[in-house]
Please model this.
Amino acid sequence: MNTGPITVLIIEDNPADAKLISELLRGTDSSYRIETAPTITEGLDKIKSVKPGVILLDLTLPDSKGINSLDIILPVAGDIPVIVLTGINSETLSLEAVQKGAQDYLVKGQANGHLLHKSISYSMERKTIERKLKASEERARAISDSSMDAIIVIDGKGAITYFNDSAEKVFGFTKEESFGLKLHDLIVSQTAKEKYHRKLPNFDKTGTCSVVGKTLEVNATRKDGSRFPIELSISSFQMHGQWHSVGSIRDITKRKKLETKLREAAITDELTGILNRRGFFALADQQCKLATRSNKIISLLYLDIDNMKSINDQFSHKAGDAALQETARLLQQTYRGSDVIARIGGDEFAVVLTDSSADFEKTITQHLEDNLAKLNNQQDREFTISLSMGISHFNPATPCSIDNLLTTADILMYEHKKSKFAANIIESLRGEPAEKRTCRRYEGNNKCTADINNSTGLTIKDISLGGLCYRTDEKLSAGSQYEIYLVSHANKKIHCTGKVIWSTLIETDASKKSPSAVYESGVQFVNMSSTQAKSLKALMCNTGIQSR
Model:
């Protein structure tokens, strides 16, 4: 094993990916010297000039695309191991790459520094073993005995002729127990044994078969009968006029468990523990296919937390995270375990339900509202959660994509949000009936103004305990939030937070030399405390403004 620095040639046209790979390798305990090449042509020149210990090859390059890149690199690389490291996650492509001669196939984004280091170490060791086995059986025996992989040699009839130390550890058999036994009677299943006899009918005569020269992932059997996954690389050689095959075997139990965890992590939202956007699309698509086969209508709910920004701003981002987690738990408590529940954006959630009975929408809406009320009525809560929701339906008679379902539900959700908060701006949500009549709607007469978004002295058109309406010369983005200071005739100020619900072009001011647009905007008060509400009532009642 080379104890000095290992030269790693990264053939990658994306500078950011090349830098990330370099940093991952430098973060391991081993010493690596990094060389890069952005094209296949420059990569070929670097192989000749720097003689790398290993090559990491992307399959999508400016002057070479796909699996053909291996056909160009491998003849020049010779005994240098080549590991495909690409963004293309394809089992078919990975198998083809290994069949052509790549030592390993790793997917960007799934490979950490430890995995890269292991892949490089194993690839270099396998390449060394394969080369020396062809040169000398004795040298191959010495090398394989020090290998971390199990090395097993069988003759043309399938009998074991060599069993290295690692093979003893992996399979639990001693060398003495294994010698002379048929490999496929010892460590493989009956099904694999049948496949073996079909694929190796003339191996003892030709030294070739459908699995020689390939790396396969199969299940093997230990001496105690337990089954476990292995990676098996098979090659053949001729010794004393007879064909033998050698298998380089690696126990990949830990790797498989890690792959399972990575797959789960790839579709799970880390904060809430429910599905993320990728997981949602995958499972929602499956539900649509099942609905098509069973000719059943399913429904998609799109939900948004109304006051997320104000929770973050007023109570901290930790509280915002708690609101997201509470919403996820609320959906899990409200809907069934078979329903697809996901967080698909910052404060956006989606649910796919398979029950679409006549009273379905009313039932699920009421159920969610009841559970949300219970959550908000808990004692000692810092904040309340408000949700807007839209519902769309998948009908097998007129199928559509998940994207289209989400778009439809998103539009309906926004209409729900708009209608819900527009009412809050016009109507007071607090106070006694007499106070509601007094504070219902007002027309500004310059006695109450507002400072909003760095604009001062803005005249209020309408105001209530729910929100206010005023005019600006620019359109405000729906959902954006601003700090608001309400100013009375006595220059008393009330500070609060407002969220834009709508902003509409209403006229053009022709009195100016250059006519300018006039927008009317509705802003909802969010997270207003009882003290602020009391001050707002006093301010409105003391302005002398007449209600409409």
